[in-house]
Amino acid sequence: MKGSVLMYLQLATVAVLALACSIAFASDPSPLQDFCVAFDKNDSAVFVNGKFCKDPKDVKAEDFFLSGLNVAGDTSGQLGSKVTPVAVNELVGLNTLGISLARIDFAPYGLNPPHTHPRASEVLFVLEGTLYVGFVTSNGDDGNRLFTKVLNAGDVFVFPVGLIHFQFNTEKSNAIAFAGLSSQNPGVITIANATFGSEPPINPDVLTKAFQLDKNLVEYLQKLF
Ligand SMILES: *[C@@H]1O[C@H](CO)[C@@H](O)[C@H](O)[C@H]1NC(C)=O
Ligand SMILES: *[C@@H]1O[C@H](CO)[C@@H](O)[C@H](O)[C@H]1NC(C)=O
C-alpha cells in the first residue's frame, strides 16, 4: 500500500515535470527580423530566421569580440544624439543568443526621439549626465499611460518590449548611456520617421485624419522627413 502511494507520487512528479518542459520548449523561435517569407526553391532561399551559423571549427575568439565602444558617437545631427549598436550585424557571435548592446551619446539637450524596439526590452544605464526618459503603455482600459523618470549617472531604467520610449538630455552638458537589449536584432521604429518619412509616403489623407491635423501640415511634415 505504502509502496503504491509512493509510486503514484513519483509518476505524478514525472508528469508535472514533463508538462513543465513542454511549456518551456514547445514554441517556435521568435522572429529575428521583420519577416521571413517562405520560399519553396531552396537554392534561391538565402535567408533564415536570423543568420546562418559558421562552421564551429572555423570559429575564433574575434567572432565574439568588438572594440571601440569607448569612442563617443557623432552627435552633430539635428537631434543631438547618436546610437552606436552592437547587435548581430556588428558582432557575429551574438547570433541566436537573444542579447545585444548599444552606446547612446547625447549632445547638450540632445534627444533620442520616441521609438520602439519590436523585438526587445531595453535596460538603460546612465554613465554620465542627466536624462529625462519615459515610455507609454499600449492602448488599454486606462489609456496610454506615460511613465517617466529623470536619471543621473549610475541610474538604470527599463523599457518593456515594443513600447514607445525616448531619452532626452535636459542639461547643457553631454550625456552617455549604455543599453542592454533582449534580442540579437532588436529593430528600431522611429515613430516620426516611420509615420511621416515612409517610402513611398503614406496617403496624406490617412495621416490628416489619424493625427487630426491640417492636410498642409501633414504634407509639410512629409517633406521634412
Ligand atoms: C533542396 O532542394 C533539393 C532539390 O529539390 C533537395 O534534394 C534537397 O533535399 C533540398 N534541401 C533542403 C535542405 O531542403
Ligand atoms: C529621422 O528623420 C530626421 C529628419 O529628417 C533625420 O534627421 C533622422 O536622421 C531620421 N532618423 C532616422 C533614424 O532615420
TrEMBL record:
Its main location: secreted. Residues 67-219 form the Cupin type-1 domain. Residues 1-26 form the signal peptide. It is found in: Secreted, Extracellular space, Apoplast. Disulfide bonds join C36-C53. PROSITE patterns: GERMIN, PROKAR_LIPOPROTEIN. CDD domains: cupin_OxOx (cd02241). Mn(2+) binds at H115, H117, E122, H165. GO terms for molecular function: manganese ion binding. It comes from the Eukaryota. Coiled coil: none annotated. GO terms for cellular component: apoplast. Pfam families: Cupin_1 (PF00190). Keywords: Apoplast, Disulfide bond, Glycoprotein, Manganese, Metal-binding, Secreted, Signal. Oxalate binds at N112, H117, E122. Belongs to the germin family. May play a role in plant defense. Probably has no oxalate oxidase activity even if the active site is conserved. This is Germin-like protein. It comes from Juglans regia (English walnut).
